[in-house]
Amino acid sequence: MAKTATVEAGGSVARRFDSHDTGSALWLMAPALVLYAIFSLLPIAATFWLSFNSSAGFNTASSFVGLDNYAATAADPIVWQSLWHTLLWLIYHVVLAGGLGLALALAISRLKVTQVFFRTAFFLPHLVSLAVVGVIWANIYDPFYGLLNTALTELGLGAFTQGWLSDPALVLFSVNVASSWQGFGLYMLLFIAGLQNIDHSLYDAAEVDGASAWQKLVYVTLPGLREVTTFVVSLAMINGLKGFATVFVMTNGGPFYQSELITTYIYRLAFQSQDHGRAAVLCILLSLLAIAITLVFNRWRARLSK
Prior knowledge:
Layout: H1 2-51, E1 53-54, E2 63-64, H2 68-74, H3 77-108, H4 115-123, H5 130-140, H6 147-154, H7 171-196, H8 200-208, H9 213-224, H10 226-241, H11 245-250, H12 262-272, H13 276-305
Antiparallel strand pairs: 1-2
């Protein structure tokens, strides 16, 4: 009987403690929750509200139009074109920036004396803003005085000179090269950190078994980089979806919308055409695209971890 009373008393004390602890936590979290509501939840709600309204500018009255903005967006061929370009941009960035980061990490990790120098040198582009990168690469791609075409001509490869930013078939890839050049240094450092965490006894055991350099890479290095690779891919996908500054500076979505991304088209609708309703619809579409890609990627990562 006494034991039961003690247990009940202990339970009531625990309940009182939990209630008091929860209240204290809420009070401590209140400033952050208020800021999160103001700067995150409220803009999200305003975007949804704006997508059902028609507005011709920031200082004009809006009117409720229901699903008209969604219907107009679905009927706009540029929207589907920019969506396809965004997916291509994402793939290009993951392959180019992530692949180059991995290749350089594998090469630099073998160096002993000059490793710090090359790590610093290859990371420096990541410190440059994307707008500046766009200006630099726009000059590199200049068809008449640019470094790329000039170098090809001097090497006797003048037949390969191109209008890199004026050719509809090359422009998206060319701009993505500039964006990937800015981002590969971060991925390289992440891969180098992953390589340093691989147990070197695994390489010694592979050498004893007579494994070649390629077999070491496939059966030791790449499996050891699995966690880092999934993180780099997720980071590259996030950066790929945020592509805007480089495209805006170098091509502004041209020529003929061949480098238009969802982000650049949102800017065009919101600030040039003053069509805030359709711009809000595209913001929602971009968010849904990010959620879908995240779900697919998480499933892929879960399968790899099994």
